[in-house]
Design brief:
heterodimer; A: alpha+beta; 12-stranded mixed sheet; 8-stranded mixed sheet; 22 helices; 49% helix; B: alpha/beta; Rossmann fold; 4-stranded antiparallel sheet; globular; binds adenosine-5'-triphosphate; binds magnesium ion
Chain lengths: 810, 223
């Protein structure tokens, strides 16, 4: 029975290639979009992380709730939790270590992890070759061993196993390679890119002293005991935090400090969750539109099928039997559409991943797996039933006597017209919702691009250099290196200005710190002033074109020997000196050996430079002269006449002439960094725009199809009307009016739904309200215009009706 | 009123041209009641469509009063038609989804009538054809005779000078046909020119002139 239905269904589809192709394309677009987004959702949100029992992995952070700062963990803190928290089977720590690798070949800056000895066992990983770290290697002096990432081993050492037990030189020191991880272990991918190698962290007793409890720089990952929940762990950590506070903390921190937990998988997903859910909803709507479209095509065919069904019924088929046959046909159709959709999705996802690899977490894992295949199969079946059911119910509702008597022109025709109209109205409404969603994201993106970053990103070349600690031990060495390098770079042809800063805006890094203001006491229950803190060279501000508001920029005279100075940004001036002049006031964030604050005088106020991205920065910013805080790792900023990358080679030459072992990395132009900061937003926007476009096309085709069909059906009536005096314009008006009636109901309904639903995406928007009247109006008007065109084509065809022919059959 | 000279009409089948009318000459005076007769396929309907200005693909001369219809653009022909001609069809061609009253209003809606004027004309016509009590019914609920009566009423509601009817009683019993013919006579007495196509000698008897068409030519006239 089923096979018979199936064979018959297939034969029917092949007999009507036009109908089949249109239906399959609509379904493939709908199912393909769903499969694509689901496969992204699957790998990012649903598929567990690539570690054993990943749900047990938990991140632990220090927490400053009053200033909404989630900080890393300090060394004494880490040791204390590791030794005391009973909820965890083990707790591991790591910190990013950037090493300059200078063995054979080009010096290279490698992305390393400096890890506690139990790091691998906490994650549940084992070495593929060699061994992991022993407990003894957790101590200073014993820790010059390294475990390599598989891909790094392949790339740098061509997969040569002979590297095991060899030594390599990093930051001028010799490390022994003891192990190589399996290819599947890609720790670091969760934060951006996999780490190239790992070496043990070794704490000195001094580093573990509790007076450094808030000296926070470690990422801490714990593995919960089996059966322990994250809530229980949090409760235990709360108790530990309370004890630490009363024991070791004074002043503000005493009330404003705690420990917070987060599932590791949650951190990995980050802010992708909401855009993904919005996209998932969007493709769901696209599929609904596709379904409505195909249902309408099937209904249009209903008239053809009527006779066949009538005869089948007369021969004894009951209604259920008829419905079953019709459903088999539609499911065949949807399965074919689903297969094509799967292919579309496979290609689409690959393109998607290529374009966004750096910005999407776990991008490498996105692909088709059994979950996706099951999903696609399920969606295809569901789709087949969804779009097949309405026509099947309609067609099977044949009243034998009536159909045979009236020769097919019966009341069910009118009912069918009504169903078709409803489907088109629904398509219009859904398409409008998607278009408005896409429109809001586009407007947000525009708004964002209009935001002034606080500096001029054009023609700026940037790169990162890191001076190894052991080679540049003394602070003056580091200060002098950058002074010399910048001086020589400034002399290069094409270079207009050059400066350096410890952390570059939009680089994805940051550092911040608390400070005290001379003469002000922080009240007992309030926290210390806190802000982003960076070291900058003399020409940094003028190179970046960060405007000077008052006072002065850093100058050559701000050396390590003279009293400390600082430059603050306008937001810091406003926040802490609302009614005073901050110039000449003093702040401190360090203490000297006697425990007295090292005061620094504020000598300048500069504009606020957007740091994390163009969307609001909340923290205040302050800068110190590099000469007085000579960090080893600095970002060079070089303003160039014309295309910035033209001087890259020359700049490399300067650096290598000063130190040939120094790798240069993260070479990029500032505009790229600014663009990257919007990448996730652009990703969501692009996809939603594509889906809304597909929805628009499907809905317009749907409306066009219904109107064409109506015109064919009404050609007799149109012929009569023309014979009775209707002009072409009357006919056009009549058809367009009917179509636009459907379209307007759809648009109005869509506006209402959009008004309710766009709220859900409010925090994906920027600089535009979820109910933005301009977007709503423009989109609704555009959709109406497209609907008008979709109606106008069949309407014009209607005027071609020849009354002579239409009336001829009398 | 109508003057046809050397009217030719051909239908093309691929490369072949199939002449349905060749060199038709015909004069019709205002106030006449004319029947066109001839065997099936002779070209009667084709001629009526030309007279009714539906068809634009003929050659020859066609004067409507003193207007040269053959020189008019399609749009102006349509206007000429709307002003002067009403149609009655064999299978009534009432619009199923409209009530009797609404069906009558259709021709008016394509001409420049104000709303009040339209309502008045509809009311008068319903009265005149004694259809007032049926005005809210749908055509499919009525007998064939009544449906064709509405067809006639619809044809003359916009006060045309000429009514064209292509086998208006072809689907009716003889009693119903009689009613329609009597209505035509009444309209004709009131000054409307009527041209009908029919196969029935009885119906032809109502008219005062018979034009015979054979193989695309007017072959004889009886007065
Ligand atoms: N639209 C058309 N396309 C092709 N041929 C046509 C068309 N209309 C009419 N003809 C042909 O023209 C000839 C005359 O047709 P017409 O309908 O005028 O005949 P008639 O005299 O009205 O016949 P009947 O008494 O059967 O109604 C026929 O041979 C018909 O096949
Ligand atoms: Mg005929």
């Amino acid at each position: 029975m089923f096979w018979q239905d199936l064979r018959y269904g297939l034969r029917l589809l092949l007999k009507r290639p036009g109908f089949t192709v249109v239906a399959v394309i609509a379904l493939a677009l709908g199912i393909g979009a769903n499969t694509a987004i689901f496969s992204v959702v699957n790998s990012i949100l649903l598929r567990p992380l690539a570690y054993p029992s990943p749900e047990q992995l938990v991140l632990i952070n220090h927490d400053y709730p009053k200033i909404k700062l989630k900080a890393s963990v300090s060394a004494p803190g880490y040791k204390h939790y590791r030794d005391n928290a009973k909820s965890f089977a083990s707790i591991a720590a790591l910190t990013g270590g950037n090493f300059n690798l200078t063995d054979s070949g080009e010096p290279e800056r490698v992305n390393g992890g400096v890890i506690s000895q139990n790091f691998f066992s906490t994650l549940g990983a084992t070495a593929a070759q060699g061994r992991l770290f022993t407990p003894e290697e957790d101590r200073p002096g014993r820790n010059k061993v390294v475990v390599l990432n598989y891909a790094f081993w392949q790339r740098r050492y061509a997969g040569n196993p002979g590297i095991l037990n060899q030594s390599i030189t990093m930051n001028g020191e010799s490390y022994t390679v003891v192990g190589i991880m399996p290819a599947s272990f890609e720790f670091g991918r969760e934060f951006g890119r996999p780490m190239d190698l790992w070496t043990p962290i070794a704490f000195t007793p001094e580093q573990l002293n509790f007076n450094r409890l808030t000296n926070e720089y470690l990422t801490v990952i714990g593995r919960l005991n089996p059966g322990t929940t994250i809530t229980q762990a949090q409760a235990e950590l709360d108790t530990i935090a309370t004890n630490l506070r009363t024991q070791y903390m004074q002043g503000a921190d005493r009330t404003n400090w705690g420990l917070t937990t987060q599932a590791f998988s949650e951190m990995v997903v980050g802010d992708m969750r909401q855009p993904l859910l919005v996209l998932l909803a969007a493709v769901g709507l696209v599929l609904l539109i596709a379904c409505a479209n195909v249902a309408n095509l099937l209904l249009a065919r209903a008239a053809d099928r009527q006779k066949e069904i009538t005869i089948r019924s007369a021969l004894g088929a009951n209604r259920w039997r008829v419905i079953r046959q019709l459903l088999t046909e539609s499911i065949v159709l949807s399965l074919v559409g689903g297969m094509l959709g799967l292919a579309l999705a496979a290609i689409g996802v690959r393109v998607l991943v290529k374009l966004n690899e750096a910005q999407i977490p776990r991008a490498n894992e996105i692909g088709l797996d059994w979950r996706v295949l099951t999903f696609t199969l399920g969606v295809s079946l569901l789709t087949g039933i969804l779009f097949g059911l309405v026509p099947a119910l309609q067609i099977s509702k044949t009243n034998l006597a009536e159909t045979l008597k009236e020769g097919g022109r019966s009341g069910s025709n009118i009912a069918r017209g009504w169903v078709r109209g409803t489907l088109v109205v629904m398509e219009m409404a859904l398409a409008l919702m998607l278009l408005i969603g896409a429109g809001l994201l586009i407007r947000s993106f525009w708004q964002l691009q209009k935001v002034n970053p606080g500096f001029d990103p054009q023609n700026l070349l940037t790169m990162n250099i890191s001076l190894p600690q052991n080679k540049y031990k003394e602070a003056p060495q580091r200060a002098q290196f950058y002074q010399q390098a910048l001086q020589q770079i400034r002399a290069l042809p094409g270079v207009e200005a050059a400066g350096a800063v410890s952390i570059l805006p939009m680089s994805g890094n940051n550092s911040s710190g608390s400070f005290s203001i001379e003469g002000r006491q922080v009240p007992q229950n309030q926290s210390m002033p806190h802000g982003d803190r960076w070291a900058a060279t003399t020409n940094y501000f003028s190179t970046m074109k960060i405007p000077l508001i008052r006072g002065r920029y850093f100058e050559e005279r701000d050396t390590a020997e003279v009293t400390g100075v600082a430059i603050i940004d306008e937001t810091m001036a406003r926040k802490y000196w609302p009614d005073e002049d901050p110039l000449g006031k003093r702040i401190a964030f360090e203490r000297d050996d006697q425990g007295n604050p090292k005061w620094r005088e504020i000598v300048g106020i500069v504009g606020h430079a957007k740091h994390r991205n163009l969307e609001g920065d909340s923290r205040v910013q302050y800068y110190l002269p590099h000469a007085q805080m000579p960090q080893g790792s600095m970002f060079l900023t070089i303003r160039v006449k014309g295309e910035p990358t033209t001087v890259t080679g020359a700049v490399r030459g300067v650096i290598h002439s000063l130190d040939k072992d120094l790798p240069i990395f993260r070479v990029t132009v500032m505009e790229q960094l600014v663009a990257d900061s919007m990448a996730q937003r652009r990703f969501a926007m692009t996809l939603l725009v594509i889906f809304a476009g597909v929805a628009l096309v499907l809905a317009a085709v749907g409306l066009y199809g219904v109107m064409s069909y109506t015109v064919t059906q009404r050609s007799h009536e149109i012929g009569i009307r023309m014979a009775l005096g209707a002009q072409r314009s009357d006919v056009v008006k009549m058809v367009v009016r009917q179509g636009m009636m459907l379209a307007s109901i759809g648009v109005l309904g869509g506006l209402a739904f959009a008004f309710a639903l766009t709220r859900l995406m409010a925090n994906l928007l920027f600089g535009v309200k979820a109910s933005d009247p301009i977007t709503f109006a423009v989109i609704a008007a555009s959709l109406a215009l497209i609907a008008l065109i979709a109606c106008f084509i069949p309407a014009r065809r209607a005027t071609k009706v020849d009354p002579m022919i239409a009336l001829r059959y009398e | 009123m109508l003057t046809l000279r050397k009217i030719e009409r051909a239908f093309e089948f691929g490369r072949e041209k199939n002449y349905v009318l060749r060199g038709v000459n015909l004069d019709i005076e205002e106030g006449e009641f004319v029947t066109i007769m001839g065997p099936s396929g002779a070209g009667k309907s084709t001629l009526l469509h030309i007279l009714g200005l539906h068809d634009n693909a003929w050659v020859g001369e066609y004067y409507f009063f003193d207007q040269a219809a053959h020189k008019l653009k399609p749009k102006d022909r349509a206007e000429l038609r709307n002003k002067n001609i009403g149609f009655v069809f064999q299978s009534y061609h009432l619009l199923d989804q409209l009530t009797v009253q609404e069906n009558l209003e259709v021709p008016l809606s394509y001409r420049n009538y104000g709303r009040a004027e339209r309502e008045q004309l509809v009311r008068e016509t319903l009265d005149r054809f004694q259809l007032t009590d049926k005005k809210h019914l749908y055509p499919s609920k009525l007998s064939g005779g009544l449906q064709q009566l509405i067809g006639v009423a619809r044809a003359m509601i916009a006060r045309p000078k000429l009514i064209l009817a292509d086998e208006p009683t072809g689907n009716l019993h003889s009693a119903q046909a009689k009613e329609i013919m009597e209505m035509f006579c009444k309209l004709n007495e009131q000054g409307t020119t009527i041209i009908q196509v029919t196969h029935s000698e009885i119906n032809a008897g109502y008219s005062r002139r018979i034009v015979n068409i054979h193989d695309g030519n007017v072959v004889g006239e009886d007065h």
